[in-house]
Amino acid sequence: MSVSKSGYQVGRYLVRKIMRRLRLKVTQRQAYKETTKRKHSNAVVDNLLNMNFSPTSANQVWASDVTYLKTGEGWMYLA
Q1: Which of 9, 14, 36, 44 has its CA 20 to 30 A from that of 70?
Q2: Which residues pair with residue 69 across a beta bridge?
C-alpha cells in the first residue's frame, strides 16, 4: 500500500475494484515498431551543409523534419 498526496491509503485491490466499477481497462503500450527500413545498397547523399548552420544570406540553407502521427487509419507522416 502507498499513501497518496491527499492522505488516503491506496492498494491494488481497491484500485482494481474502482476501475472495474468505472469500466476502465489498462492498455499496455506496444513496443517500438520500426516504420522505415533503409536499404544499405542505396547511395547516401553527400553532406553539403557539413554542420555549418550559419548561412551568410537568406535562402541558402533549408531544413525540414518528419513527425509520425498514429491515427485511426494508421500511421501518417507530417513534414
Answers
A1: 44
A2: 76
Q: Cell match 476501475: residue?
A: 19
Whether the pLDDT of residue 36 is over 80: the answer is no
> For 41-74, how does the pLDDT look when each residue is reduced to its tens digit (9 = 90+)?
888 888 888 888 888 888 888 888 888 888 888 8
Q: Which three cell numbers stand for residue 72?
A: 485511426
> Under 8 Å CB-to-CB from 26, ≥6 apart: which residues?
19
For residue 58, which amino acid is it? A
Query: Tell me, what DSSP letter sits at residue 67?
Result: E
Query: Whose CA is closest to 33, among 79, 74, 78?
Result: 74
Nearest Cα to Cα of residue 78 among 70, 66, 64, 63? 66
Length of the chain: 79
Q: Would you state the cell numbers that stand for residue 53, as one nine-digit string? A: 548552420
